[in-house]
Amino acid sequence: MPRAGLTPQRIVEAAVDLVDTAGLDRLSVSALARGFGVKDASLYSHIRGLADLRARLAVHCAAEFADRIGSAVAGRSGRDALAAFAGAYRDYAVSHPGRYAATQLELPPEVLAGSPGHAALVEHTYLLLRPYALAEPDGTDAVRLLRSTFHGFAALEATGAFHAAREVPASWNRIVEALHTLLTNWPPTPTHP
Amino acid sequence: MPRAGLTPQRIVEAAVDLVDTAGLDRLSVSALARGFGVKDASLYSHIRGLADLRARLAVHCAAEFADRIGSAVAGRSGRDALAAFAGAYRDYAVSHPGRYAATQLELPPEVLAGSPGHAALVEHTYLLLRPYALAEPDGTDAVRLLRSTFHGFAALEATGAFHAAREVPASWNRIVEALHTLLTNWPPTPTHP
DNA sequence: TAGATTTCCTAGACCCTCTAGGCAAACCTA
DNA sequence: TAGGTTTGCCTAGAGGGTCTAGGAAATCTA
């Protein structure tokens, strides 16, 4: 009986393919084993289980996602950087919904702490906001606004929640424009009368 | 053998409780049957299956969610209405994460079309934007912005994605303020040079 | 080449969805 | 109130999922 040549890396790559075509919720140890022509139990010598596999997938996809965004924003700043960031973001989410969903998986703190991709994503977002010169806590609030809007849009688009006639990419571009306007005119802290 | 008194309504109510305490991903026909002290197969006389149960749950929770938002915005408009909408939105998402997640489930078109709660949620959002007097397609873009930001924030908060020291509710309030500013100064359609 | 290690296997426990078919309780109706 | 009908819950079982324990073969290493 020849060996199938399984490794954690190959298993994660197979998981990426599976998630890309079938969706994150269809990811299973069984399905991967079938793909390798191997019994389910064989995979457990390489990964600890489904939770471990999902964590590895999340770390892998976050790194890929952060890379694409990093390339897009390289050498740009201000409105240009924001547009490039947003373009790369939606492009990834639309063309690889399963991978994008993986980047948003909830992870155990120790896994998250050891994921360069997740750290890079946060870092890219903070750098993006530098030209807007927001003092804390406004900077953090603005980061959270951007993350929320981008992720929310991607999530809603992925579940088919936008039904109006308006083309979705046009809305996206307009929203990015609006966010730029907002960041350049960030409202002052409200005072209590 | 006395009957357990199952009905679709009671099953959906049990599903609401389960989802509230265990999370949407733990919802299963088996767990509900255990709760009723009944065999799995018994539930299939009342619901078609798990997909049907999830759809009913989504419709139920969307109606509840829309009600709360409707009560919150009643008699208000402009900034007040936006703040009330946002407050009710986050309150529901934070205090009932499982129910909120259910309102965001992807549904077959015919189910969605027959869900008053989902329709009311969209309607509330459009009404909210009336005072800002945005012509189409700006109105649709603004609706999509609000939905994206609110849902994205709720989703990220639910997965524990906000790690900065800044208190999450403070960010939420600030973001709502910022959105009000943005809606009152919606940028003009960019012209191509 | 012998021993140690790794890889994949079989077997099986346990949980899940869902269907088919049966029996008895609850409800009608005469 | 006795008959039949409908309904509610049952048993049995197929099929798919995760995961563990322990065994045998392929591969590495001394």
Summarize the SSE layout with pairings.
The structure is a homodimer of 193-residue chains.
Chain A: H1 8-22, H2 29-36, H3 40-43, H4 50-73, H5 78-95, H6 97-103, H7 109-113, H8 116-129, H9 138-158, H10 168-184
Helix pairs in contact in A: 1-4, 4-5, 4-6, 4-8, 5-6, 5-9, 5-10, 8-9, 9-10
The structure holds a DNA duplex (30 and 30 nucleotides).
Overview of the structural elements:
2 copies of one chain form a homodimer. With about 190 residues, chain A is mostly helical. Chain A has one domain (about 10-185): Tetracycline Repressor, domain 2. Chain A is built from 10 helices and no strands. Chain A has helices spanning about 10-20, 30-35, 40-45, 50-75, 80-95, 95-105, 110-115, 115-130, 140-160, 170-185. The interface of A and B includes residues 137, 140, 141, 162 and 182 of A. Chain A binds a DNA duplex (30 and 30 nucleotides) through α2 and α3. Chains A, B: Keywords: DNA-binding, Transcription, Transcription regulation.
Short description:
The first copy, chain A, has helices spanning 8-22, 29-36, 40-43, 50-73, 78-95, 97-103, 109-113, 116-129, 138-158, 168-184.
CATH topology of chain A: Tetracycline Repressor, domain 2
Q: Sheet bearing the most strands of chain A, described?
A: none
Mean pLDDT of chain A: 94
Shape of chain A: elongated
User: Ranges of chain A with pLDDT <50 over ≥5 residues?
Assistant: none
Domain HTH tetR-type (chains A, B): 5-65
Pfam families (chains A, B): TetR_C_33
Protein name (chains A, B): TetR family transcriptional regulator
DNA-binding region (chains A, B): 28-47
